[in-house]
Amino acid sequence: MKRTFAAAAAAALVTLGFVAVAAQPASAATLTQVVNFGNNPTNLNMYVYAPDTTASRPALLVLVHYCGGSASQIFGGNGHDYATAADRYGYVIVLPEATRSGHCFDVSTAQALRRDGGGDSTGIMSMVSWARTRYNVDSSRIVVSGFSSGAMMTNVLAAEYPDVFAAASAFSGVPAGCFATTDGSLWNSQCSGGNISKTAQQWGDVARAMYPGYTGRYPRMQLWHGTTDTTLAYPNFNEEVKQWTNLNGLGQTPSYTDSPQASWTRARYGNTGTQATVEAVSISGTGHTLPQAGMLAYSISFLGLDGSAPPSSPPPSSPPPSRSNVMIVGTESGRCLDDPNGSTANGTQMQLYDCWGGSSQRWTYTSNRQLTISGKCLDASGHGTTNGTQVIIWDCNGQANQQWNLNADGTITGVQSGLCADAAGAATANGTKIQLWSCHGGTNQRWSLRT
Length: 451
Fold this sequence. Notes:
By secondary structure, the chain is an alpha/beta fold. The protein has helices spanning 7-12, 71-76, 80-89, 120-135, 149-160, 189-192, 200-208, 235-247, 295-303; strands at 20-22, 31-35, 45-49, 60-64, 92-97, 142-147, 167-171, 220-226, 256-258, 264-269, 278-283, 323-330, 336-338, 351-353, 363-365, 371-373, 376-380, 391-394, 404-406, 412-414, 420-423, 434-437, 447-450.
């Protein structure tokens, strides 16, 4: 599964000098090898890149190379945009390097497909632990990305260590566990050929078996694949989508689709903003040559490496219980979410007002995650996904900008935007407008339901 490059990309590859250290700080702004970083049963190499100005609590990206590649090739070649962005945003990059013949990562053997099983993933997690301590890493912003063999490892790491990784981005991979073999081989031709198909539940169960007993959340996942890929055939793309939607408690119908570029088809599942719960991007007429120019910018934003906060809460895994005839009361203000004067006009912006229990303050939360009042739906104006978007009422249409999650922490988040229903300016007076805003934990974004 050797990785191929366009001539221009090949010319861009540079030879980098490395300094081997025994668990010592990396020299700033150089790719540096680290040795004696911890348990390393398969003799991987570890490299780390810390920019000249590293954030005080940096994010950590684990960047995994393709078959036949190396840390230096992915760092200086088609993964270089990640390094450039690290200089801008101050995050740290850990680059594992396979040393076996062929320089592929093991995503096939029993050891590799079990948490702490003694395979390549065990050594990679030792690298993560070393970097977390050395650089005071923000534990909520540890992410992983990889290409080809590295994309397969990205899927495996996210499945085995869902409590560590917040998000993942896989370019031209296969589902976690698809490459499993029983004869010690690292190649599974049935999987590579796109001939293994399972239900979403079955794929989810394959991943869950890698960390038995775990009941917490799974990482957000971004998937990329070319439609003419014959190395890891295109049908694997849909199998990956099945697995990660199932692990995140989502169905198979996208919440949102678009075409960011002419040959791209992007589908988002669950949360539909920049940091969707699951995002799948299909590239028409492209083979096993990802990523291409411009793609990593999307990945950087999805992974939150540009400093943007992730959605506060993923959608529930099953339809929520309906609630009828309830008042929605602001924690900070003690006032109710109110439809001014009981208006039924499309576009009316919601406000805070003294709770008096009338019909203009009585909401119903449906099993479809709609909040309805007087036959209208609570709506993010204009399908907005940016701070300041007005929270209004509109004719119910079933779209994602009219779906809301009532979260355990008291926030109400838009399914499409991931943003919080917010009392503008943290004001508490009658007439304060309700808007969408990045979730920050303030009491002007917390609400309770009262009968």
